[in-house]
Design a protein that fits this description.
It contains 8 helices and 5 strands; from the N terminus they run αβββαααβαβααα. The protein is α/β, with parallel strands linked by helices. A hairpin with a 2-residue loop joins strand 2 (about 35-45) and strand 3 (about 45-55).
């Protein structure tokens, strides 16, 4: 709970946040690759900037992954490799607090890609990142289910292109904002 109070204070003080998401060739960072990064930089005053980039995984796109996100080999073949994309993404993250939906998944994939490229891993001040799964569990414990698409439907957050990194990052941001509203109301009602 202390972490959430700190997060709420940061939000109310105008801190800058970056909600981000990755799309991948599979579920295992050691053998699968990042094929898309999407991110939304925002504060309590609204969206400041967006980042979206497809990435060539240097291997064929598995059929099951393509069925989930709709990203094909032809969409990826002329895209830059991860080491060329990462400096722009790292620059986008500067001076912001990182959030993701199921942060362990996305951060582990980014760090796996960084390791493959012999680059330093994503670390403080960005990691550990705040996880909107955990925030939603605290703010909406009665829901019992906390995947991104389910939360979007229950919280009436529009989804335009599910399982594409930029739209999923935007939905993550919207879930975060809804959680901040809940926390602000709880905070006011207990007079803290």
């Amino acid at each position: 709970m202390q972490d959430i109070k700190k997060l709420l204070r940061l939000f109310e003080d105008g801190a800058i946040f970056t909600a981000f998401d990755t799309e991948t060739t599979g579920l295992y960072p050691a053998r699968d690759r990042v094929i898309e990064i999407g991110a939304v930089r925002f504060s309590k005053d609204g969206v400041q900037e967006q980042f979206s980039q497809l990435i060539n995984p240097e291997k064929p796109m598995p059929y099951m992954a393509m069925k989930v996100n709709g990203i094909t080999d032809s969409m990826l073949c002329n895209q830059p490799l991860f080491p060329a994309v990462y400096p722009k993404f790292a620059d986008f993250l500067k001076s912001s607090i990182l959030i993701a939906h199921n942060t362990r998944f996305d951060v582990s994939f980014i760090n796996s890609e960084l390791e493959k490229a012999n680059l330093p891993e994503l670390k403080s001040p960005h990691v550990p990142a705040y996880d909107t799964v955990r925030l939603a569990q605290k703010c909406y414990p009665h829901l019992g289910k906390f995947n991104l698409q389910y939360l979007a439907s229950v919280l009436i957050i529009p989804v335009y292109t599910a399982h594409r990194a930029l739209d999923d990052a935007r939905v993550c941001m919207e879930i975060f904002l809804k959680c901040m509203e809940v926390m602000q109301k709880k905070h006011k009602s207990i007079g803290s």
